[in-house]
């Protein structure tokens, strides 16, 4: 089946979370795409993303923030690497968020993310993000304890408060020209098992294996519930989630690239227009350079 990037971006975008159910997205879905065709389309999409990013940079008005969340081995790293492979490294910055340090724990949960936001004209990528606060921290109550919050800030309404604060924060970003797009790479429990086994069996992949991933895997139902609620409460028109089937890496990459180029296109950025004065100055420089002895 012939695919279009706009179709793919639309199909997996959740802009109104209220009625979202995770069971409605099949991790193995490929939209009946042919793998070879999808790979060609990805190569084009990567080129388009590079052209669009140059305009974003030249104009220097918008910043784009891409947030990636997923269970282990869902393919975040590979997706980021492939989708951004054509982009000028100077126009793009990836930040990976790990378990917070003592210094980070001593601040509010958005503090460390705020410092890693992309500048105008750049694409910022968060490999995990402040959404971990509604995922790993929710699934492990001891992590919340470690934050040492006052009782008033850690009562039974804490998750609703977190969703509310995140929505307000993303609205604030939108009001400041930061375009937020969020990706949940939705891998199945079976496919994760295959990928973790490959990390154990293949010496080249051994370094990627972490015993902790098996512990988190045991908590799969709790994580899926947390992901579903996170999307229900934080998918908005201006900061949508893309729930991306992740059992086939080639398809995951194509959907993410499609969402990126559709987002960049929607900003309708042209090459910056020069004023009459700037054009005259270019003319003078051309004349000077033509007359140069070299
Ligand atoms: P990979 O897929 O290569 O394993 P990763 O993103 O899982 O990449 P790791 O270094 O394995 O990277 O894991 C980072 C860990 O940090 C994750 O288990 C994540 O849940 C945890 N983490 C991130 N943010 C927080 C947070 N706010 N509180 C507690 N743990 C967090
Ligand atoms: Mg990990």
Written overview of the protein:
- It is a single chain.
- The model has no long low-confidence stretch (mean pLDDT 96).
- The chain has helices spanning 5-12, 35-59, 76-83, 102-105, 111-115, 136-139, 141-145, 158-175, 189-201, 211-218, 220-234, 249-266, 276-290, and strands at residues 13-14, 63-70, 92-96, 123-127, 178-186, 241-245.
- It is 50% helix and 12% strand.
- It is globular.
- Strands 1-6-5-2-4-3 form a six-stranded mixed sheet, sandwiched between helices.
- It contains 13 helices and six strands.
Could you list some keywords that capture this structure?
single chain; 294 residues; alpha/beta; six-stranded mixed β-sheet; 6 strands; globular; binds adenosine-5'-triphosphate; binds magnesium ion
Percent range of helical residues: 40-55%
Strand order of the largest sheet: 1-6-5-2-4-3
Associated small molecules: adenosine-5'-triphosphate, magnesium ion
Q: What Rg, in angstroms, do the CA atoms define?
A: 21 Å
Topology as H/E string? HEHEHEHHEHHHEHHHEHH
Query: In DSSP terms, counting alpha (H) and pi (I) runs of 4 or more, how many helices?
Result: 13
Give the strand tally: 6
Global morphology: globular
Q: Structural class of the helix and strand makeup?
A: alpha/beta
What share of residues are in beta strands? 5-15%
Nearest-integer average pLDDT: 96
Stretches where pLDDT is under 50 for at least 5 consecutive residues are none
| Gap between N and C termini | 56 Å
| Main sheet makeup | 6 strands, mixed
Summed up, what is this model?
By secondary structure, this protein is α/β, with parallel strands linked by helices. It has 13 helices and six strands. Strands 1-6-5-2-4-3 form a six-stranded mixed beta sheet, with helices on both faces.
